[in-house]
């Protein structure tokens, strides 16, 4: 069963993009702190769909100390 793709199609924010909870699913195993590129790489390692990778690639380029900081930054992406 391909749970990741199933989640990708069902759980969306009102704007049609991945929710912070969905993004965090693909960051499983991340040891913080991590920078933006390391988060993108972790998501790819966890077979994240392209919309999740794209969203992560647009967050601020800085060090993230926790999943909460990543989620907060996701909310600022336009």
Keywords:
disordered N terminus, 5% strand, mainly alpha, 5 helices, 2 strands, two-stranded antiparallel sheet, single chain, 78 residues
Describe this structure in words.
- There is one protein chain.
- The termini are far apart.
- A two-stranded antiparallel ribbon has the order 1-2.
- Helix content is about 55%, strand content about 5%.
- The chain is mainly alpha-helical.
- The chain contains five helices and two strands; from the N terminus they run ααβααβα.
- It has helices at about 5-10, 20-25, 35-45, 50-55, 65-75; strands at about 35, 65.
Query: Could you give the order of strands across the largest sheet?
Result: 1-2
Shape: globular
In terms of quaternary structure, what is this?
single chain
Tell me how many strands there are.
2
Radius of gyration: 11 Å
Number of helices: 5
The share of residues in helices is 40-55%
Q: What is the mean pLDDT?
A: 87
Question: How are the elements arranged and paired?
Answer:
Elements: H1 3-10, H2 20-26, E1 34-35, H3 36-45, H4 50-57, E2 63-64, H5 67-74
Antiparallel strand pairs: 1-2
Task: Please sum up the structure shown.
With 78 residues, this protein is mostly helical. The protein contains five helices and two strands.
């Amino acid at each position: 069963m391909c749970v990741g793709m199933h989640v990708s199609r069902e759980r969306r924010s009102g704007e049609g993009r991945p929710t912070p909870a969905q993004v965090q699913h693909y960051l499983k195993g991340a040891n913080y702190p991590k920078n933006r590129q390391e988060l993108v790489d972790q998501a790819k390692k966890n077979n994240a769909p392209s919309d999740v990778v794209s969203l992560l690639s647009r967050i601020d380029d800085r060090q993230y100390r926790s999943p909460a900081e990543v989620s907060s930054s996701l909310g600022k992406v336009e």
